[in-house]
Write a structure and sequence with these properties.
The chain is mostly helical and 203 residues long. Helix content is 59%, strand content 3%. It has a two-stranded parallel sheet. α3 runs antiparallel to α6 and α4 packs parallel to α6. The relative contact order is 0.10.
């Protein structure tokens, strides 16, 4: 056990409290970090008075766990992510690598146990999800078809974001300008919070 086990939660708490964050979108497995942050702020308030904004976790039950291409939790460290900004050919290869079982094309398939379907339903509309369920259940619909549907859905859903990504990758100066504006805005908020803390501590 090293010091990081104890200091990292405090670092995360500082990152949240320093910018007066009110709502924090997190997965269920990260909820404890918000609880620790609230505990830290509440302890400070008990001794020094109201100073920080107490953040709240925003957890969407339907997206508590995002599966990767191997069915495990999606994680860059596991190499099982789907990079929506990849060129089309590489993106399609990534999606086609999603693990599925060996059920023959003509047989019905269990959408509840299908990794490709689990990813698809996170992005598709309710109507699209119902159509996909029907295709699985009636048979004659292969996993290759489902993966192709997922591929096309990602291209359609993130068309604007992919275009913006391509633009910024070819205009690095524009990225620097956005980062600079963000840094100035964040610094302004952080200084206000630090001034409140210093005032409470008598500095």
């Amino acid at each position: 056990v090293n010091s990081g086990l104890f200091t990292y939660p405090m670092l995360m708490a500082a990152d949240i409290l320093l910018y007066d964050a009110e709502i924090i979108p997190v997965g269920k497995d990260q909820e404890q970090h918000i609880e620790i942050t609230r505990d830290v702020a509440s302890r400070f308030h008990a001794k020094m008075g109201e100073t920080f904004v107490l953040p709240k976790a925003d957890i969407q039950e339907s997206t508590m766990l995002i599966p990767g291409t191997d069915g495990e939790k999606m994680s860059k460290s596991k190499g099982n992510t789907i990079d929506i900004f990849l060129p089309e050919k590489k993106l399609r290869k990534q999606i086609m690598s999603i693990k599925t079982d060996s059920t023959p094309l003509e047989e019905p398939k269990d959408w509840k146990a299908c990794n490709c379907f689990s990813i698809y339903k996170l992005l598709a509309s309710k109507g699209e999800v119902e159509i996909m369920k029907s295709n699985y259940e009636k048979g004659g619909y292969g996993y290759g078809h489902a993966k192709q549907e997922l591929f096309q859905l990602i291209l359609d859903k993130f068309k604007t974001q992919r275009e913006l990504y391509a633009y910024y990758m070819n205009n690095v100066q524009a990225i620097d300008e956005v980062l600079m504006k963000g840094a100035i805005k964040a610094s302004t908020v952080a200084n206000e919070v630090l001034n409140r803390v210093r005032a409470k501590l008598g500095y």
